[in-house]
Design a protein that fits this description.
The complex is a heterodimer. Chain A is an alpha/beta fold. The longest helix of chain A has 21 residues. Helices cover 76% and strands 1% of the residues of chain B. In chain B, strands 1-2 form a two-stranded antiparallel ribbon. The longest helix of chain B is centred in the middle third of the chain and has 27 residues. Classes of the chains: A alpha/beta, B mainly alpha. At the A-B interface, helix 1, helix 2, strand 2, helix 3 and helix 4 of A face helix 1, helix 4, helix 11 and helix 12 of B.
Chain lengths: 370, 284
């Protein structure tokens, strides 16, 4: 065991000593997201979106002649790992801004460190309403659940759907969505919460069969949960409308659900599939997304808006914050947007996207009530 | 410098809980797999009260009461179950407590966690946490070292080696177990009290099995029961874990590599200690 300690000490010290070398050349941009663990699919998509935009900017000559150096850290969808990741990015790598976190827990844990160091933290995926008040240097180009559920509630109202059945996976994303929709819409006709990763909903579906409802909301964290919900709903012969959100609008939902998910609707940012310039390029470079191309698109736009800010005001956290606060509009691939006084994205549009003939098809825009 | 302070702070804040677990699992050979279950109770009881009342003294009193209660319950289980039964039951308790936290969302906010946890006035910077954490960890390690080398430690060893013989020598098993669980519980409270203030966040994901596996790795690699070995192992494994972030490799390769490396360390450590790791009666 002494040999183990000696070798570990040597390795640990030498590895720790590897970092920290300052470099005036490239503009350092950090990334925090879950690259391992259950939520890795989101992290991989957003990292790919981040890399894609960084590569494009570098290929075009960089920002005012300076290349961007991307430094990615694994936040594992956990506050503890995100806190260490942000400490390294801010204090060792000296990044100018960070794209991340992805899970809301990552963003909330990283926010105080970024705030203290006056480093912009721009999340492309955190949707929890808690992120709104996470700090002055915290922004997101992914809409808060509070905004997304307003669009869904308005859609239900427009279609005269008054009795909503919901099955929610017990994760921060899905629970946040449920709480926010409840606030915007009111009580549900059927409201059940299942453990993360649940795949068998048959007993719940048997109970649901005896409930009078108009629409079923598959409120999971990933297609691996959402697709089985819809499949088992149809197995029980229930023909009511089934709807989901961005976590479900994925190629995986189609491959897992097959014909059972035909007609499944999703309310999401406008479609970013193979038929769009971004989607086709994303898939050509990185293959089919693990979660959804939209996640990569939000990360792509996060880099884009940060690069625009750095290009305009220089690599200074306070100046970038000033630029983002004053930003009137940024034409991103997910839509034209800017930020409100809390750093939440404004101007994001939503669309109704439906599974038709085995593919996600964007049918029409969904208005968000004021 | 701040990153170094952060690493010192996280190691120091983790130490009381891990050292407490080392006393139970390493020294006492009590197959208690629920230290994170105790942490859940300690953290939520403390910070729910702090968030509701704004009073840290009240939060700490409630946290202490809840921690002592759950520790007493685990001690009671350890007295009534065989080693393997306690192992399974403590895992079940951990999962049960996690399920309560995740599902009683009207109280705990479920999977959303408790954000914006306030800090005590003297805890502002990373340096403050590193200093306080190091002082607390050093005092705690010294105290456990004294306990370990004293009468109590010898009683714990005697019970782990041969319960009947120990009892015949007048060692009160109930008292020793109860005290050991209480000490470990207080270590848990000391850890969570600092850690969640540091993060400004209490989140259910901090109490999952990956964190427990790290506890086991530290104790087994450091030498079960050894306070000094456990401290050295905690420092080295934490440095190794965070040091790997500096390896110039793609993070999507490095992440799995890190998991494999820690799995391998645990495997090797268990293999090397296979004769002394689990409860085994002394034979002639």
């Amino acid at each position: 065991m002494r040999t183990f300690f000696a070798l570990s000490s040597l390795l640990a010290l030498s590895l720790t000593a590897c970092g920290g070398a300052g470099d005036e050349g490239p503009i350092k941009l950090g990334y925090i997201g879950p690259l391992t663990g259950d939520a890795a699919s989101y992290g991989i998509d957003t990292l790919n979106g981040t890399k894609m935009k960084v590569d494009e900017i570098n290929a075009a000559g960089g920002i005012n002649g300076r290349q961007i150096q991307l430094i990615a850290e694994d936040g594992k969808c956990a506050g503890a790992d995100a806190a260490t990741a942000v400490q390294k990015l801010v204090n060792i790598d000296k990044v100018i801004a960070i794209v991340g976190g992805q899970c809301s827990g990552e963003t909330l844990a990283a926010a105080p460190v970024a705030e203290a160091a006056k480093v912009i933290l721009l999340s492309p995926l955190s949707s929890s309403p808690d992120v709104t008040n996470a700090g002055a240097y915290v922004y997101r180009d992914y809409p808060s659940d509070a905004l997304k559920t307003k669009a869904m509630a308005a859609y239900f109202q427009e279609k005269g759907l008054t009795k909503v059945a919901v099955i929610t996976e017990n994760t921060d994303f899905a629970q946040g969505f449920r709480a926010s929709l409840k606030k915007d819409f009111g009580d549900f006709a059927f409201d059940e919460v299942v453990e993360p990763g649940t795949k068998d909903f048959r007993s719940l579906m048997t109970r649901l069969k005896n409930v009078d409802f108009d629409v079923f909301l598959a409120n999971g964290q990933s297609p691996a949960t959402i697709a089985p919900m819809v499949v088992q709903l149809r197995e029980q012969g229930m023909k009511q409308l089934a709807i989901t959100h961005d976590a479900g609008q994925s190629a995986d939902t189609l491959s897992i659900g097959g014909k059972s998910v035909e007609g499944l609707e999703a309310i999401n940012v406008p479609a970013l599939g193979k038929d769009t310039a971004f989607g086709s390029k994303f898939i050509a470079q990185y293959g089919e997304p693990q979660g959804a191309a939209a996640f990569g698109a939000h990360a792509y736009d996060a880099v884009g808006v940060l690069a625009e800010a750095i290009g305009a005001v220089g690599a200074n956290g306070e100046a970038i914050k000033g630029y983002l606060d004053q930003l009137e509009e940024y034409p991103g691939v997910v839509g034209t947007f800017h930020f409100d006084e809390n750093g939440d994205v404004v101007g994001m549009s939503y669309a109704l996207i439906v599974v038709q003939n085995g593919a996600w098809v964007q049918t029409r825009p969904i208005a968000i009530p004021e | 410098m701040n990153f170094l302070l952060h690493i010192i702070a996280t190691i120091a804040m983790g130490a009381p809980n891990i050292l407490g677990f080392n006393m139970l699992f390493g020294r006492g050979k009590i197959l208690h797999f629920g230290p994170l279950g105790v942490s859940i109770v300690a953290a939520y009881a403390t910070f729910l009260v702090v968030m509701a009342t704004g009073s840290y003294p009240l939060g700490i009193v409630c946290g202490l009461a809840a921690t002592c209660s759950i520790s007493a319950f685990f001690a009671w289980l350890s007295l009534r179950l065989d080693a393997d039964g306690l192992g399974v039951m403590s895992i079940a308790m951990h999962l049960g407590l996690l399920a309560v936290v995740l599902n009683w969302s009207s109280l705990t906010r479920g999977a959303l966690g408790i954000p914006r946890v306030p800090r005590l006035p003297f805890l502002d910077s990373t340096g403050d946490f590193a200093l306080l954490g190091t002082c607390v960890a050093a005092l705690w390690a010294w105290m456990l070292w004294q306990v370990d080398r004293g009468t109590f430690g010898r009683k714990l060893i005697a019970l782990s080696e041969h319960e009947w013989h120990a009892k015949s020598l007048g060692i009160d098993r109930s008292r020793v177990h109860m005290l050991a669980f209480m000490i470990a519980g207080i270590g848990s409270l000391l850890g969570v009290l600092q850690y969640h203030q540091y993060l400004y966040l209490v989140h259910p994901s901090d109490f999952g099995f990956p964190a427990f596996i790290f506890f086991v790795t530290v104790v087994v690699a450091g030498g079960p029961g050894s306070v000094r070995g456990c401290v050295v192992s905690l420092i080295l494994l934490s440095l190794l874990r965070e040091g790997l972030r500096f390896v110039p490799m793609s993070p999507d390769v490095l992440g799995p590599l890190r998991l494999i490396l820690f799995g391998a360390i645990l495997f090797v450590a268990v293999w090397l200690r296979r004769d002394t790791l689990f409860p085994k009666q002394r034979t002639v």
